[in-house]
Amino acid sequence: MKTFLAKKETVQPKWHLIDAEGQVLGRLAVKAANLIRGRHKATYTPSVDTGDFVVIINAEKIVLTGKKEEKNKYMFFSGFVGGESYRKLSEQRARHPEFIIEHAVKGMLPKNRIAAKMLSKLRVFAGPTHTHEAQNPVKISV
User: How confident is the model at residue 142 (pLDDT cuts 50, 70, 90)?
Assistant: First the structure.
């Protein structure tokens, strides 16, 4: 019996839809990261991008436990001396709620070249509508 290794040409990605309303950020990010990596498939191969596309809606209604809303901060750097700035999670939710989920999922992907390609399969929308109805995404419960 030989070990099966998936090839890039044979992978056929599917589309999944996740509603983030009322979901805990970490649990949602784990589910999305595993779908993007392809960990749920029998043909999972670590060195090949075997994952599926994930569309997340209602990013603004994600839930965090404890005092993370005020304690968690995101750091941004302009590249210039003294160009470091911090933004609380509550401020980030008001400005760009999609970033919170994208950042959490990115942290759960491997730190290599394939991760950048995998992250392009994640589509996050702040509201309940999305632009991928033509792909017929299958709704997934977290």
Answer: confident
Pairing of the two strands 138-140 and 53-57: unpaired
Please give the C-alpha separations between residue 2 and each of 5, 6, 10, 114, in angstroms, as whole numbers: 9, 12, 18, 25
Neighbours of 129 (CB within 10 A): 9
DSSP string, 46-90: TTS----EEEEE-GGG-B--TTHHHH-EEEEE-SSTT-EEEEEHH
**pLDDT for residue 122:** 97
CA distances from 110 to 15, 40, 69, 115 (A): 21, 16, 26, 6
DSSP state of 133: G
Give the DSSP letter of residue 134.
G
Can you tell me which residue has the tokens 């491997």? Answer: 110
Domains with residue ranges and CATH for the chain = 15-65+97-140 (3.90.1180.10)
Distance CA 62, CA 20 (A): 6
Q: How far is CA 132 from the centre of its chain?
A: 16
Mean pLDDT of the 120-134 span: 96
